[in-house]
Amino acid sequence: MLRAGVDLGGTKIQVVISDPLNRVLGAFRRPTPRTGGPPAVTEAIAAAIRQAAADGRVDLADVTGIGVGAPGHIDAQAGTVANAGNLPDWMITYPLSRELSARLRLPVALGNDVQVAVNAEVRLGAGRPYHSMIGVFCGTGVGGGVVIDDELWLGRGAAGELGHICVQTEGGAPCPCGRRGCMEAYAGRAAMEIQARRWRALGKPTQLFDIMAARQRERLTSGVWYRAMKRKDPMAKKLLKRAVWALGSAIGSTVNALDVEAVIIGGGLGLRLGQPFVDSIRDAMIPHLVAPQNPPAVLLAELGDLGGAIGAALLVTERRSDP
Amino acid sequence: MLRAGVDLGGTKIQVVISDPLNRVLGAFRRPTPRTGGPPAVTEAIAAAIRQAAADGRVDLADVTGIGVGAPGHIDAQAGTVANAGNLPDWMITYPLSRELSARLRLPVALGNDVQVAVNAEVRLGAGRPYHSMIGVFCGTGVGGGVVIDDELWLGRGAAGELGHICVQTEGGAPCPCGRRGCMEAYAGRAAMEIQARRWRALGKPTQLFDIMAARQRERLTSGVWYRAMKRKDPMAKKLLKRAVWALGSAIGSTVNALDVEAVIIGGGLGLRLGQPFVDSIRDAMIPHLVAPQNPPAVLLAELGDLGGAIGAALLVTERRSDP
Known about the structure:
2 copies of one chain form a homodimer. The first copy, chain A, is α/β, with parallel strands linked by helices. The first copy, chain A, has 2 domains: 2-117 and 306-320, Nucleotidyltransferase, domain 5 (2-Layer Sandwich), CATH 3.30.420; 130-301, Nucleotidyltransferase, domain 5 (2-Layer Sandwich). Chain A has 10 helices and 12 strands. The first copy, chain A, has helices spanning 37-55, 96-104, 113-124, 184-187, 189-201, 208-214, 222-230, 234-258, 267-285, 307-320, and strands at 2-8, 12-18, 24-31, 63-70, 73-75, 80-82, 108-112, 133-138, 142-148, 151-152, 262-266, 297-300. A 5-stranded mixed β-sheet of chain A has the order 3-2-1-4-7. In chain A, strands 10-9-8-11-12 form a 5-stranded mixed β-sheet. In chain A, α1 (37-55) crosses α2 and α8 (234-258) packs across α9. The longest helix of chain A is centred in the C-terminal third of the chain and has 25 residues, at 234-258. The two termini of chain A are 20 Å apart. The mean pLDDT of chain A is 95. Chain A binds chain B through residues 132, 144, 146, 148, 153-162, 164-170, 177, 179, 245-246, 249-250, 252-254, 256-261, 287-288, 290-291, 294, and chain B through 132, 144, 146, 148, 153-162, 164-170, 177, 179, 245-246, 249-250, 252-254, 256-261, 287-288, 290-291, 294.
């Protein structure tokens, strides 16, 4: 009863092989292919699963299924991924379940990347003591998940878009989604980088791009932000202050609506900035609460970088019990 | 199996007597006493229940219980109402259940005024076709309710505060709650009146206060706003445009988080302004949606002014089935 879990992202593919107690027996990580479109990505996933099995000295014949957490629009029933703007040439509807299943002769279950990561925290991570919570995952964008009575609430399929809570309706910053004033317009790495490049072009001082170059990155990764903060870079400080301001407002509003027991902060940026970031979000949230004397617990995600893949592996068992 | 339902508000007490099919057999409405504090209000409720029974030619001996929807902090278990700023001299914790029960020798169940009104719409009104929805009730303030899988979601007891979703985090309007930028700061009648008085003091033209005086009101009631809108009063138009702007943003954000099937607009102001108000809120909401091609239904509450009392009567049966 081993399972493979795949966290499919725009920059990397992370695979784990987990046992029935959700212990990670093997893991493998590789960059997402930038060319070749969905077939190349599918082939890379299959190869990464074989590598993860080898890493854990596991026979693939002992793996009963594969779970994949993917970005874009997921149709779990149909087994398709569509409109995944972060993946190369993936605006089409691609039958990932069928294609991956054909390569490894194993059943494949699909889920939304952020939702499976939140579910992993609920079942196995920081969310274990709680029955209601929200997950806020800060990465390139800001994804989320809402947990009600121990279950992810999906609504009509699209719930959890906490990054697109509008925190500044008039005169808000532009969001990668095309709207203005969304929390993600302040707290998503993509939006933060656009603002940083704009300010740099205006001659404002920052080490952000020197750190990026020194680390041979093309983007302001979470690691770049972390290092800039350690060096007390003024632009990084200012942009992260804006991010925390927006996160505090959006999370406070959501808590006013749902009065959940806990808020879990994760995602690449959240994990990299860690507990001080979580504490500052909590401090920014409290003034927005109708009941500030009874705030929810605000916690850092526990499962780290493997959380998405571990959560994807859970899809194998949880989907099986579906009607 | 008849029940009495009481909608206890800052300006009026509305009582209904309802039968097991939730038909209203009798009703009575009276102003909330402004003096005498909680005991006077309790006495007035008891008298209003007797009057409603008389109105329906119902023997009080056939009534099995009383449900009360009240503002402020409700402890349903303890049967107390506290911090009800809209009620006269009611900042204390008052044992309303026990005191009302002693007067009529009937069991009393308490609930939050907005939550019971939303529940009535869910069970008996506009919400019947849906399993997930939010209710947004615009009155003196803006109350709300969240319905997940056919049940009101109460969180840790304080969920549904949709009026305190922050729509303008920087430079937002002052809200009666003491914070800034809450949706209620734009869409609650109390906040709208404060703004109207400020603008009038600055000499901006409006008929709002003439209409108020002609109708012998001391406040800008929902009826005053309705009449001013019919006369195309510029200040009323401007303030209601702001209200719709804030409602569209806060409701859009909540739909992005929860992806509910429906949004129900009620409350004194919502009911008075009716379908055109609902339509304009829908139009203001759609640009905020992550999935604008699949918006929720936005509907006017169906049960009208009696909804709160009808919902309060439901407390009698629903609480009985609690563990």
